[in-house]
Design goal:
Elements (H helix, E strand, L loop, with lengths): L6 H31 L18 H5 L2 H14 L11 H25 L8 H31 L5 E6 L5 H10 L5 E8 L15 E4 L3 H7 L4 E4 L6 H14 L2 E4 L10 E7 L2 E7 L5 H21 L1 H14 L6 E7 L5 E7 L34 H8 L7 H6 L4 E3 L6 H4 L15 E3 L12 H13 L3 H17 L4
């Protein structure tokens, strides 16, 4: 509910970061000096020692560069933005990115000052790696300290809940379960047409109706007004917002006032105008960027490493059918229905799509999908490459150029999409992939609706860890023919 961490928390975090950087560097420098003093090995009989001694005092002067450079990097990596609420893995990712930027910045400064040659590489690398951990732990300590103060009732924000028809109860239950959020409800305001009574024993006091809001804000120390429920008209919300604006009190509104069950709300800015956006797809920008980076690195590496297998497969297809093509390109629906050409090694006879209507009555899958276990159109080579999913390997090119991802719902045929029910269209809200939950849960042994449910489950619960688990489980599913 708070748009940003308060100034006191930011100052505390920055002061702790400076102390952690200094202490980490001093400890790293001291430990390195102790190791050098007792290091008995030299792998080169007449060459220089691997670890040379360093004088501690001259090296402490580098803190003049390291501290501002590290702080600059932490700021540029957005590690101070809402860090009290983000997940630990996101915070660690931002801290590591900040240290990387700080290290590169400090190297550039030392190079310009012609001091880079005096820097110990082992000391610098060790300090950078250790500081990633110590800065992360220091930041988590600041968050725990803040939450401990909230639980004791210190530095809390006074919240006034404005609702209609008892809709404040879920919000109150959430805030009471999470006292470490620093929110303390001081009372409830009803709609003008609602009875002014508490919903039950032990409930928070009803301080009045919406028409009484100016008087309530004048007589009570309120930091934030929170409107919840769905029975609000635009005029009433505007009146509440204007009243809060007049006295400088923060105003928040439950993003679920439209009755959306899964969509997440995010306030954005567009050319000076505020825009409230709702999304059901993953919104973690950093994690999605890492996902794309992983796609590029792994797909390019796989294309190179698997090139001998590509050549052997192409040779086998040509030996069985010299006149037919090696690759088969099929139009598929990608992100939000964008069509693209998905590539596969040809595993069927040439012109197999024209024969599909003749086999329509043998379809073994319900819904707008066509699959036959013993499809007569499949060639001998095709049967083997399909069994081992080798026919799907050319899609690594689709992954590399960004049309697909390594993990994601399988891309459907546009004709199938046109037969989807509305709820099934949401599976197109994430980039299609080579493998997904369907691949590791039995593949052809599940019905169409279960297949759709698995794809939506993946979208709703997506994380980098889930992608990693699916990538590790896919080979077993391919080899055994089942995800069980």
């Amino acid at each position: 509910m708070q748009r940003q961490v308060n100034a006191r928390l930011l100052i505390t975090a920055r002061v702790v970061d400076v102390l952690v950087i200094v202490l980490t560097y001093v400890v790293t420098l001291t430990l390195r000096s102790l190791i050098v003093a007792h290091w008995p090995f030299n792998f080169f009989s007449e060459g220089p020692r691997i670890l040379r001694g360093t004088a501690i005092l001259p090296y402490l002067g580098h803190l003049i560069v390291f501290v501002p450079a590290w702080m600059f990097g932490l700021h540029m990596s957005r590690s101070y933005e809402d860090f009290a609420r983000v997940r630990s893995n996101i915070l660690l990712f931002r801290v590591c990115g900040g240290v990387l930027v700080g290290a590169l910045t400090s190297l550039a400064v030392l190079f310009l000052l012609k001091q880079a040659g005096l820097l110990s590489r082992t000391l610098f690398l060790g300090f950078a790696l250790v500081s990633m951990l110590t800065l992360f732990l220091g930041r988590r300590w600041v968050v725990r300290l803040r939450r401990r103060r909230f639980r004791k009732g210190n530095d809390t924000r006074n919240i006034l809940v404005v609702n209609a028809d008892g809709a404040e109860i879920p919000l109150i239950e959430i805030l009471e379960r999470h006292a470490d959020l620093g929110m303390r409800i001081i009372g409830v305001v009803r709609g003008d047409d609602e009875p002014l009574k508490s919903p039950g024993r032990g409930a928070h006091p009803v301080l009045g109706a919406v028409r009484d809001l100016p008087r309530i804000l004048e007589n009570h120390p309120v930091d934030q007004v929170y409107a919840t429920g769905r029975r609000w008209d635009v005029g009433t919300l505007r009146a509440i917002a204007d009243t809060c604006e007049e006295v400088g009190v923060d105003f928040s509104i439950d993003a679920n006032f439209l009755g959306l069950r899964m969509a997440r709300a995010e306030l954005e800015e567009m050319d000076g105008s505020a825009v409230l956006s709702f999304s059901t797809t993953p919104a973690d920008v950093e994690a999605l960027a890492v996902k794309r980076l992983i796609d590029i690195v792994l797909s390019s590496a796989a294309l190179v490493l698997l090139s001998p297998l590509y050549l052997l497969t192409a040779l086998a297809i040509k030996l069985e059918d010299p006149r037919g093509p090696v690759l088969y390109g099929q139009r598929r629906s990608g992100l939000h229905g964008r069509e693209f050409t998905m590539w596969k090694f040809r595993s069927m006879v040439a012109g197999a799509e024209k024969l599909q209507e003749q086999l329509r009555d043998r379809n073994e899958v319900d819904g707008p999908v066509f699959k036959i276990t013993a499809d007569p159109r499949i060639t001998r080579v095709g049967r083997w490459i399909r069994k081992l999913s080798i026919d799907e390997l050319p899609q690594l090119w689709n992954v590399l150029i960004g049309e697909m991802s390594l993990v994601g719902p399988r891309p459907p045929i546009p004709d199938e999409v046109r037969q989807y029910e509305r709820w099934q269209m949401r599976r197109l809200s994430m980039k299609p992939g080579l493998t997904c939950l369907w691949q590791v849960h039995g593949r052809n042994n599940i019905d169409f609706n279960t297949w759709m449910d698995l794809d939506l489950e993946y979208i709703d619960n997506w994380s980098l860890l889930l992608d990693l688990k699916l990538l590790l489980r896919t080979p077993k599913a391919v080899i055994t023919g089942s995800g069980k």
